[in-house]
């Protein structure tokens, strides 16, 4: 990975920030795409400190022209793009009826179409060289929707379908470009203080919770060994999918009973009710990679270790 050019969207915080650090430790040249200037500057400082080269770019991935312009600048200043990581997303915590059409559209434009725009910009440069890796950052919620996150779940389902279609096309063309997907569990990122919420209590990830560095290891491994179709990071996601297959509808009933409380702490909601839907939350202050659940988050995943041990 040394000296290879990597693009990461949503790179200023959370999983993207952790992935930037992981690639930087391998000496990569990294383009950091996000909206928040303070977060981007801090992420760039992290990359440089760890031995990488950073190019922070203020980009809203919902705008295909901004994504395309960023890709042009990356190749002009850093060189040919070897890895593109589509990680940027946003969401709204609320029952479906309380989410406006404009909010639903915005989540879809950032989370799903942002991935499409990033993939298009990457492919336009990778296809002529017949080389490169695109890593889609997915979620267990790409397979199993949960209450109170309908726009996000819908977008992640869409990314899964889009990626499957694209992968088949690349195989048909015998392309050297690889596309893979990393399915993430609940992570301890700033997301739960940033995402717009209408819940009465503070949002939280559904346990078990993992640190974003676990996700970052999976993303780097996917970039280095892209032949695997996808990687699952959290063990509970596999159990969830098996339960859905064995007893259809069981999880619908279970989540109907437990899905509201399990996504909220005991504390009343405060802070930033507007969230980061249209404006970044790290424009003036860096929030780093971690959220407020360090005391509960796991630093390792046995499932990820089982999928990657033979490559060591």
TrEMBL record:
PROSITE patterns assigned to the protein according to its UniProt record, in alphabetical order: ADH_SHORT (PS00061)
GO molecular function, one term: oxidoreductase activity
UniProt keyword annotations, A-Z: Oxidoreductase
A Pfam family annotated for this UniProt entry: adh_short
Region described as Disordered: spans on this chain: 260-283
SUPFAM superfamilies associated with the record: NAD(P)-binding Rossmann-fold domains
Residue intervals of the Ketoreductase domain: 4-190
InterPro entries referenced in this protein's UniProt entry, alphabetically: KR_dom (IPR057326), NAD(P)-bd_dom_sf (IPR036291), Sc_DH/Rdtase_CS (IPR020904), SDR_fam (IPR002347)
Gene Ontology annotations for the cellular component aspect, listed alphabetically: membrane
Entry keyword GTP-binding: no
Transmembrane segments: none
Assigned protein family: Belongs to the short-chain dehydrogenases/reductases (SDR) family.
Protein name: SDR family oxidoreductase
Organism expressing this protein natively: Actinomadura chibensis
């Amino acid at each position: 990975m040394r000296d290879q050019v990597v693009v990461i969207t949503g790179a200023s915080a959370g999983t993207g920030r952790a992935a930037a650090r992981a690639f930087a430790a391998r000496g990569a040249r990294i383009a950091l795409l996000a909206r928040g200037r303070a977060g981007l500057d801090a992420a760039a400082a992290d990359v440089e400190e760890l031995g990488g080269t950073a190019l922070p770019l203020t980009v809203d991935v919902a705008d295909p022209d901004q994504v395309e312009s960023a890709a042009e600048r990356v190749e002009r200043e850093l060189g040919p793009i070897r890895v593109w990581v589509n990680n940027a997303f946003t969401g709204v915590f609320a029952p479906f009826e309380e989410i406006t059409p404009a909010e639903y559209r915005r989540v879809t434009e950032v989370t799903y179409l942002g991935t499409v725009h990033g993939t298009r910009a990457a492919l336009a440069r990778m296809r002529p060289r017949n080389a490169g890796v695109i890593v889609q950052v997915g979620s267990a919620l790409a397979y199993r929707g949960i209450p109170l996150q309908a726009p996000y779940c819908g977008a992640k389902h869409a990314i899964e379908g889009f990626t499957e279609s694209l992968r088949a096309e690349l195989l048909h063309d015998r392309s050297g470009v690889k596309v893979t997907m990393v399915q993430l569990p609940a992570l301890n990122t700033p997301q739960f203080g940033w995402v717009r919420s209408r819940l009465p209590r503070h949002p939280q990830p559904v346990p078990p919770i993992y640190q974003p560095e676990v996700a970052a290891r999976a993303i780097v491994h996917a970039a280095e060994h892209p032949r695997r179709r996808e990687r699952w990071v959290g063990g509970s996601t596999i159990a969830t999918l098996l339960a859905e297959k064995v007893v259809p509808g069981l999880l619908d009933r279970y989540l109907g009973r437990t899905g509201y409380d399990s996504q909220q702490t005991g504390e009343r909601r405060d802070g930033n009710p507007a969230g980061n839907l249209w404006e970044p939350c790290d424009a003036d202050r860096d929030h780093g990679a971690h959220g407020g659940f360090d005391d509960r988050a796991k630093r390792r995943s046995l499932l990820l270790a089982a999928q990657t041990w033979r490559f060591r």
